[in-house]
Amino acid sequence: MTGKRSTSTSTSTSTSSKRGCSATRTATAGSIAGVDHNTYHCLIVLVLFETPSGFAMFGMSGDRLIQPNALQEIWANFGVDYRVSKFIWLKEFREIKDKSSAINHDTGVSCDLAEMIMKWHHPGQKMAVGKPEYKEIIERSLSVPCMFDEIVMEVMWGLKNLMHVLVPQEKMKLSKDDYLPMSQGLYMLLNRYGLDVKPEMVTDSIIKLACFLLDCEYCDVKNSKHLRWTGEYIEKRSGIKCLDWDLMKLATGIKIICYPTERSTAEEAMFTQDELSKLVKDAHKYEGKIRKRSFMNAYSEMVEARQLIPMAQKQLEDLVKEAKDACEAEQST
């Protein structure tokens, strides 16, 4: 989303006073689809990402940072390159010759970097930064409200992981230390499967397979609300006490209601004789009331996820063992 900015009839100037240089902020009048420009830009968070030779400015939807499970899941948006474009986008990359003075406690923000920040920043808009000292210096020098916390660090980890895709202009490589610390969300997922993975053991293959596992787990999450609502409807209409059923049993029960003659012995075994009898007997009550195709898709997806998780877990265990052996071999040389 790079390109020329709209011109404006009014501008405001913010100055990095200790350097004696000024950076001009351009504010655009009008609206986007009926939304005031300042309101629109407040919904978009800027992300200032430091690369080996400069800084990149990204935009991303601010609500991604405040989701209930952001810390556990935000890393997966950077796990594979095909999904990241919907999550974050590059606005500009700029090489900085003297990186040590770009953001400095004594001298503030360099003219070049200040100009880039103010070029993209709009009044009231927040900017995520990768270090707590950057937050303090930029807020003091440019009056730009900044964000730095553990969720922002997940975003920075992700940007490092896909820097070669997201910032193709950057030709220099990150060092091993630059990838530290390890993503907390990734660590939580690996730990959930009993895998103790040190940061230096993380490989692209491990990240991609971990993303796949998270996607499998998400099948239940995305189908839960609709299934639970339908369970309440079934309990009211047929008196079947299904609110305490686990999600897979509930999905199977709804499948039996939709297709009462197409049930397997394994599916029948999930229910008591009374529950099964009521599901089959009352199936006609739900004709035209339940979208069969939608529920069958959810059921099939959940069944497939449960079949894939053990296989993916085994592959992940093998990858972790390979990575551990490789690290130990490298340390012994």
UniProtKB/TrEMBL annotation:
Task: Give the transmembrane region(s).
Answer: none
Superkingdom of the source? Eukaryota
> What's in the keyword line of the UniProt record?
Coiled coil
Q: Which InterPro entries match?
A: Nop56/Nop58
Determine if Coiled coil is one of this entry's keywords: yes
| Keyword Transmembrane included in the entry's annotation | no
An example GO CC term for this entry is: box C/D methylation guide snoRNP complex
Q: Which PANTHER family match?
A: NUCLEOLAR PROTEIN 5 NUCLEOLAR PROTEIN NOP5 NOP58, PROTEIN, PUTATIVE, EXPRESSED-RELATED
Q: What is this protein called?
A: MAR-binding protein, putative, expressed
The organism of origin for this protein: Oryza sativa subsp. japonica (Rice)
